[in-house]
Amino acid sequence: MKFGVVVFPGSNCDHDAWFAVSNNLGQKAEFIWHDAPSIGDVDAVILPGGFAYGDYLRCGAIAKFSPVMQSIRKFASSGGLVLGICNGFQILAESGLLPGVLVRNRGLKFICKPVPLRVESTNSPFTAEAQKGQRLVMPIAHGEGCYIADDRTLDQLEAEDRVVLRYLDNPNGSMRDIAGILNEQRNVMGLMPHPERVSEPLMGSTDGLVIFQSMMSYVAQATTPVLSAH
Amino acid sequence: MTPQLVEAHQLTAAEYARIVSLIGREPNYTELGIFSVMWSEHCSYKSSRLHLKKLPTRSQLVVQGPGENAGIIDIGDGYAIAFKIESHNHPSFIEPFQGAATGVGGILRDIFTMGARPIAVMDALRFGPLDKARNRRILEGVVSGIAHYGNCFGVPTVGGECVFEECYNGNPLVNVFALGVFRKDQIFYGKAKGVGNPVIYVGAKTGRDGIHGASMASAEFTEESKQKRPNVQVGDPFLEKLLLEACLEAMETGAIVGIQDMGAAGLTCSTCEMGSRAGTGVEIDLQYVPQRETGMTPYEIMLSESQERMLLVADKGREDEVFRVFRKWGLDAVTIGHVTPDGILRVKDHGQVVAEIPNRGLADEAPLYDRPHAQPYRPVPLTAPPIPNRATRAAIESDLIALLGSGDICSKRWIWEQYDYTVRTNTIAGPGSDAAVVRIKETGTSIAMALDGNSRYCVLDPREGAKLIVAECCRNLSTAGALPVAATNNLNFGNPERPEIMAQLVESIEGIGEACKFFETPITGGNVSLYNETLGEAIYPTPVMGIVGLMKTAAPTPMHFQNPDRAAMLLGAFGECDETHFGGTQYAKVILQSLWGLPPTLDMDYEKRVQQAIREIVNAGLAESAHDISDGGFAVALAECSFGPAAVGASVKLNEQARAEIALFHENPSRILISTGEPEKVQKIAREYGVECQQIGVTMKERLQIGNSSGWLVDCSLSDLKEPWEKSLETRLLQP
């Protein structure tokens, strides 16, 4: 399959995501520049980590106006897979593609460390290959990863089985220990931990691979090929 | 030109006379400003240059030695690395957050201006003790400044050191090391070649920030220094990230002839150094310089140290290729002048010449001083004070716990968890390891890096102290299995105009030179930071070494014991230590609160053989864990080996006759702790290198026991030892 990795000015995990899916998983992958008029013929889009547009104003606040986000919205609404990692999650939340918002960590400091997570739902194209309740360890690296939303949204996320990953040892104060969520159609996922950083044995773990592998299986099995937006 | 004005520019009467004779007339105000920054200690190395020449700078692997923006080493397979260390001490004291942040920004530009993509940063930090609120505030500011810049830029901060000493109370040290990788055929130099070629300004606009930063860094601190806060620049890591990507992309067009960042002394330094290196002149007109403020004078524009700016020279006629790239990244790129044949830096403002100085005069004919140097300043006695007997088990256990929780030895997790150390997915061994290791994706090679200083050793004996630091760095790298190949140094000292301080500098440089020659790690560049004094009180002499090593990419050998029931081995002699050589240890500092005597004795030949042996042991896959013994000595190192996630400690016995506390806590070099399932094979390798290697005990679950012929000296659960080590820094920082 073919992954598209979006590059905003200030993205800095773009190459890591590209390397994880191309080198470690042998898939095709290409970069998509932030003002590209179209995202081309990719099967899935990754919004990588970093500090898009310097995270000025608020993280993700400027990125949502980026030309490429238009195509990504269309792609998502036509069922295409969109994965937002870290800053990518922040951008998806800011764009309204995912509910809630990510604010400063509880301790007000940037935190970089491996954290244990629990897979809460396997009913998604991003976690179908994992086991429900499975423990995954992935690094976080963010200053603004505290997920908040109003109670109704949180209840709805839980009722609809859209909380995909939870922290076992909440590092940033996220409500209900939420580390990753889905949109209503379940084809857009955002998560604060970095699966791409644990996708080869040399980096100490391959716990992140299951996310990308689930996406690959989903795309391979999709009966109706996912249409790309133009 | 009045003598007061000359003095206010920190130029001596003799230096002023030299300026007059160089240009054949009195300089105008702008020219005086230009000379003052280029001839400042920070830019000209006028006190240290003579002695820096004593350092070894060549080897088969050195592609570029000192004199460029960074040193370059060939790592094989068509690739090279660029690396350097630089200080931002003075700005970090005045404004910790921005001072440290722009320190990171400056050294990153030094790396990517050569065409290399930065892949690792490390920092060596020194502060006054944390019982003072001001020191806590400085530490927090510096750490968040480094985190802010490095994390946003997207370079992993993979290691470093953090040390506390009274002498850094009014003068913290922030030394930042950066390393980048590139193809060997894509190296760029800071040369203004090709008469007629356009000189192009790129990046941030010029403002009034940082004017005279370089001269500020060349003066002692007084009570008024805090008023120099406007001299500290403000960093924008997002802009720097754009600048990085734009520069690397522009370099690929092939239209760039030479490029240099605007760091200390800004536009002045970049124009005259690029001209001087190429033997050309540079003519610019300031009306084209993008400006953030209105009404800036030529003096201010030339001396501004606004961050995130670069100067480049492009092939005439191909400017558009360069402009296109910078436009893509949304950055200013403007032709501000051109290269001339006359070797002169000519600065115009709306066509009017405002400064005209020979490049070489500025860059290469700066004053050179052979400053008098006497006996190194030594504020402490040679002979040991009476050392109380603390050889009982109760005393040793409590002393070990006190050492593990002391500022220098305790876990620095609180610091490094604020740094993104895994971005770029290359970090094989990160913070907390003996050496940091990052792999190079493009080849099968990994780079190991170690950063180390020890100012207590150096104040006791600057020459031997410096040698011990080089040895320790090389030992750190070897313990990771890497072959040390090259070094960079940051020399932090007091006022060189005092002969006893100058002597510390000279002795340290000579010590570094001797050791780097011996360990075959030539110096490829570095930084000298003098005048680190506040109210007449100098810091301890603090040379910091950054040494890099090469190894095949492979899973790292951890420093922690992995499994119980393995042989615990000591590679290298246990060593003896008399009271005189015990005075620089952490035990003397923390338990006895004293400093005396001499640093530990180093036998470089023996040290080298220990390093050769450990590399062979590690690379043969024989060591389940390996950790070198340094600060705190044997007992502390053994405890550190036991603090891994597997919670495996050890039970060891010593045959030492010496006083137990000296045996356990002396800091003799050339010693490494190993755990292995194959002790005979390990010993065989050690024998081949003529190095002792005795089995001292076995690893065991959850306890640390150290005994001698009279019984246990330490018998503790690991959690009792680990907790103070792990929590100490945070506890100190959180005190009211």
Based on CA atoms alone, the radius of gyration of chain A comes out at 16 Å
The span between the termini of chain B is 52 Å
Mean pLDDT of chain A: 95
Beta percentage of chain B is 15-25%
Radius of gyration of chain B: 26 Å
Strand order in the sheet with the most strands of chain B: 8-10-7-11-9-12-13
Number of strands of chain A: 11
**Helical segment count of chain A:** 5
- Give the tally of β-strands of chain B: 28
Shape of chain A: globular
Strand line-up across the major sheet of chain A = 2-1-3-4-11-10-9-6-7
User: Sheet bearing the most strands of chain B, described?
Assistant: 7 strands, mixed
User: Rough shape of chain B?
Assistant: globular
The main sheet of chain A comes to: 9 strands, mixed
Low-confidence stretches of chain A: none
Class derived from helix and strand content of chain A: alpha/beta
Q: Mean pLDDT of chain B, rounded to whole units?
A: 95
As an assembly, this protein is: heterodimer
Low-confidence stretches of chain B: none
Helix content of chain B: 25-40%
SSE sequence of chain A, one letter per element: EHEEHEHEEEEHEEEH
Task: Give structural notes.
- The complex is a heterodimer of chains A (230) and B (736).
- In chain A, 23% of the residues lie in helices and 25% in strands.
- Chain A is α/β, with parallel strands linked by helices and 230 residues long.
- In chain A, strand 1, helix 1 and strand 2 form a beta-alpha-beta unit.
- Chain B is globular.
- In chain B, helix 18 packs parallel to helix 19.
- The longest helix of chain B is centred in the first third of the chain and has 21 residues.
- At the A-B interface, helix 1 and strand 6 of A face helix 8 and helix 10 of B.
